[in-house]
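Hey team,

Filing this mostly as a record. A colleague (T.K.) asked me to run one chain through the structure pipeline before their review meeting, and I want the input and output archived in the tracker in case anyone asks later how it was produced. No errors, nothing strange. Just documentation.

Input sequence:
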Amino acid sequence: MTMFNDIIFHDLQIFSAVVGLRSYKKTAQKLGLDLSNIGRRIKVLEEQLGCQLVNRNHHDLAITPEGVRLYQAFIKHETAFNEMLDKFQNSTGNEGGDIDIAIPSGIIEYILARNIPRYLREHPNININLISQTRELNLVAEKYDCAILRHIPQQNALKIRKIYEIKIQLYCTREYKKRYGAPESLFDLEKHMLLGRIQDDLTKIRQYHVYNNEERIAVFHANNRFMSNNTALDKQAVMSDEVIVGGNDYLYQEELTSGKIIKVLPEYYFHSDFQSFYLVSDGNKHRRKIVQDFMDYLLELFSSLGRQH
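Output structure:
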């Protein structure tokens, strides 16, 4: 009887995920199971309970009225079970394990790569895996504990918090200034080669709002011949002494300190929508304390960076 109850509970967890995701494929991805196993376990559950829970055809999946009633009854117990695990793990004080976080390439990589080693020194029981992603993520279906995204995702049941907004400034090498001069006004920028920004979906960023001391003073329309979606490439390009690039002091602090790179029109900064970043997690997912603590650390880290810049 105990084995039967264990199987029923596991199958109910699978069924609960199917209801939440409305997809066998997404459920398999979320739970790390074979796709064929999802349908088989749902069928076994239906046979054990003597009722149909899911109506399915080649294209659609719908939950029957009996399935809805079962889900509503079970979800309360599953929530209580997860809360019990939270309390137990928090009481032990020794929780450890892996934290998987998806991040975009660029400034976020630089910031986290420089700050996470210190966090790991202070938390010896955890491991942090940073995975750069350029594709669209499905946080509900995938196994990431959290993600940092450049946009607000459309999926339901996600917890979304804006954490950072880059204030872009312009940089060139001293050699570039010797060869071509440096712009003395916004109007002079048209005479220079600027490295532009292109997004992963090939959307070209052509319009930037220009600010001076937090006041928006102009709209700059960029007509760039050279564009990039990669911050590491930006750094290589500026060192060619042939182009002005946009960036952030955090990216170029070593080059600024050594004098290899100088700021162009330092009284201005530029902003476009793609420069905002959001911390995203699955609001319905059982959240381990180490993940909650790490996300709190990220919020404080980026908040402090915002105060600095």
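Quick notes for T.K.: The mean pLDDT is 83. The two ends are 62 Å apart (CA to CA).
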